[in-house]
From TrEMBL:
This is Outer membrane OprD family porin. One of its GO terms (cellular component) is membrane. The keyword GTP-binding does not apply. Residues 1-24 form the signal peptide. InterPro entries: OM_porin_bac, Porin_dom_sf. Pfam families: OprD. It comes from the Bacteria. Keywords: Signal, Transport.
Length: 416
């Protein structure tokens, strides 16, 4: 009962802030001597529907919710010390669209399709030169541990570490990540428990380097060591060439090596994935063609964030054992024809997996349509997102077709 009341109060607060910020949308807001107050309000509808038997999409997950976050961050004290805190919250809008048995959408509590509120961020920070350290609850944005902010609320973590840009062209990071709050939960759980190991209390040592040795050649090298679970190494190499004002090209390579370590609590495994994608951009049009392959021994474990590979679509990550994937995409920026702020793209992923053996699984294809609109002028900060996905799975090995709809109205604002 208390959680419901707290969620309702928070949602009402967010609504009032949304209104107040809208009236002041045309005023420039800057950090004051007292710090900054920023926020985000979201109105979100989500449904995923799958077939069980026959042609009806009768396995339903559905939520319609209001929520967001409100954050205060101090100014730098003595130019070296500071802190921040953010309150996260979400609540259902309509009982008909938020039935208890249809939870699990990522917008609300998965067990009851109800709202909640939580102190999602609360950290102290310190800096010297171009190095900044943060401790306790915070958002992290790295390849395998990230905010996964595609529903109502972001994921956040209890973590301790630093990032540094003191070396030219390099940003280095080192963190011990102890606990995670999932995007549909108010509880911070140990990282190993979030990876499926109930009864454990382990964390992850995370280290990474983002390096741009020369212009147009950004690289990433990240490693995640979870004692007695596994070690995951991720690399990304990108090459940009051509004329940004004319025809531009991009080549992207991504690779991951993952293997069990220590007591191997999730089993003994060693696997990997590699992928290559090419992109062509011209006159607002972008074309993507990519392919990837996963080792046929085991699939890739992805326990703590949004999967970083380019072939990760709305529903399928295409990272199962032995999976070979083809990705095709086309997008267009409609500002070229007078519709400023409007973009759309279509993506299709085709996944082929073994038909026999211990890693046999159904072949799966996915087709996504994504539309984005950022308002301008007096409505600056307001955006509208519409996404649709159709999943086509091979029924011979137990696959189930399905479709997904996401509609999101979002407003970003700054009060101080």
């Amino acid at each position: 009962m208390l959680r419901k009341i707290t969620g309702l109060a928070l949602a009402l607060l967010l609504s009032l802030l949304f209104t107040a910020a809208a009236f002041a949308a045309d005023e420039e807001k800057k950090a004051s001597e007292w710090g900054t107050v920023t926020g985000q309000a979201r109105l979100y509808y989500f449904t995923q529907r799958n077939k069980t038997t026959g042609d009806d999409f009768d396995n339903i997950k559905e939520s319609f919710a209001l929520g967001g976050w409100l954050k205060y961050e101090t100014p730098w004290l003595m130019d070296h010390f500071g802190g921040g805190a953010a309150l996260y919250g979400t609540m259902p809008i309509s009982g008909e669209l938020n039935q208890r048995k249809q939870g699990g959408t990522g917008l609300l509590d998965p067990a009851n399709n109800e709202g909640f509120a939580v102190l999602g961020e609360a950290y102290l920070k310190a800096r010297y030169s171009e190095t900044e350290a943060r401790v306790w609850r915070q958002r992290l944005e790295t390849p395998f541990i990230n905010s996964n902010d595609s529903r109502m609320l972001p994921q956040s973590y209890e973590a301790y570490g630093f990032k540094s840009s003191d070396i030219d062209t390099v940003q280095a990071s080192l963190y011990w990540v102890d606990k995670e709050k999932a995007r549909d939960s108010e509880v911070f759980e140990p990282m190993t428990k979030m990876a499926g190991l109930d009864g454990t209390d382990g964390g992850v040592l995370m280290a990474g380097v983002d390096w741009t040795p020369v212009d147009d050649y950004p690289t990433r090298f990240w490693n995640y060591y979870a004692p007695d679970l596994d070690n995951t190494f991720f690399t990304e190499l990108k090459y940009l060439f051509g004329d940004p004002q004319g025809v531009a090209y991009e080549l992207l390579f991504q690779g991951v090596d993952q293997r069990s370590v220590g007591e191997q609590r999730a089993g003994n495994y060693s696997t990997g994935e590699a992928g290559l994608m090419g992109t062509l951009k011209y006159a607002g049009i972008s074309l993507n063609v990519g392919g990837s392959i996963v080792d046929d021994s085991y699939g890739i474990r992805n326990s703590w964030g949004n999967y970083p590979f380019f072939n990760n679509l709305m529903s399928y990550a295409f990272n199962r054992a032995g999976e070979k994937t083809l990705l095709l995409g086309v997008g267009y920026d409609f500002s070229r024809v007078g519709f400023k702020g409007f973009k759309a793209d279509v993506k299709a992923g085709f996944g082929d997996t073994p038909d026999s053996g211990r890693n046999a699984s159904p072949d799966r294809n996915e087709y996504d349509l994504n539309t984005y609109y950022d308002f301008d002028g007096e409505l600056k900060g307001l955006s509208l997102l519409g996404r649709f996905s159709y999943q086509d799975a091979d029924g011979d090995l137990g696959g189930k077709d399905g479709f997904q709809v996401r509609l999101r109205l979002q407003y970003n604002f700054q009060l101080l």
